[in-house]
Amino acid sequence: MNSSSAKFTPVAIGLHWIMAAGLALAFGVGQYMSGLELSPWKLKIYTWHKWLGVTLFLLVGIRVAWRLTHRPPALPATMSQRLQKITEAAHRVLYVLMVLIPLTGWLHSSAAGVSVVYFNLFPLPNLVPKDKVLSHLFETFHQTLNWALLVLVLGHVAAALKHQLIDRDHLMIRMRP
User: Fold this and answer.
1) If 141 and its partner were Cys, which of 16, 20, 104, 106 is the partner (CB 3.0–4.6 Å)?
2) Which pLDDT tens digit goes with each residue over 92-139?
3) First vs last Cα of the chain: how many Å apart?
4) pTM higher than 0.70 for the full model?
């Protein structure tokens, strides 16, 4: 097996796909709930969205810890140094966004004066005092970062498909369960 087809660890693979599904779900729920009129249903959806966000925030912490202690397989030798640097930078930005998005959601909730209570059991501290202007600012950051993540994820998927279908360098096999 060449270096481009060496696999990630089972933990890394599992975290990757759980995060991918969770992020897709959180994004979809976020888009759905933003179009709802204020109602008990909308409040319930917001609560579920927050629970999912906290779960993803915890999982990205685990994922970062795993990544720092487990070196990923090398990129294909056929990739230029420039493209390898771009790939590494894109992955770093993905991680930064996976941290900042739930954090800005939590900050938005705090500034809106709506505490996050994880699974209705664990109240999270408000990170900032109630402030309408700050709430709007964090909401805008949260939404903008989500759209940036979507663009980056679509680029990530397109690059993976290019490696599989055009380059045929077996890069996708590394992340297959």
Assistant:
1) 104
2) 999 999 999 999 999 999 999 999 999 999 999 999 999 999 999 999
3) 17
4) yes
Q: Which tokens belong to 136?
A: 């709007």
Dig out the tokens for 53 from the structure: 């966000």
Q: Rounded to an integer, what is the distance from CA 13 to the centroid of its chain?
A: 15
- Residue recorded with tokens 């408000």: 126
Kindly write down the DSSP assignment for every residue of 98-144, as one continuous string: HHHHHHHHHHHHHHHT---EETTTEEPPPSS---HHHHHHHHHHHHH
Torsion of CA 124, 130, 134, 137, to 10 degrees: 50
- Count of helix runs (H) and strand runs (E) in the chain: 4, 2
- Cα separation, 146 vs 105, whole angstroms: 10
Tell me which residue has tokens 């490696």. Answer: 163
Asked if 37 and 49 count as a contact pair (C-beta separation under 8 A), the reply is no
Report pLDDT for 171. Answer: 85
pLDDT score recorded for residue 6? 84
Q: Cα(55)–Cα(123) distance, rounded to whole angstroms?
A: 14
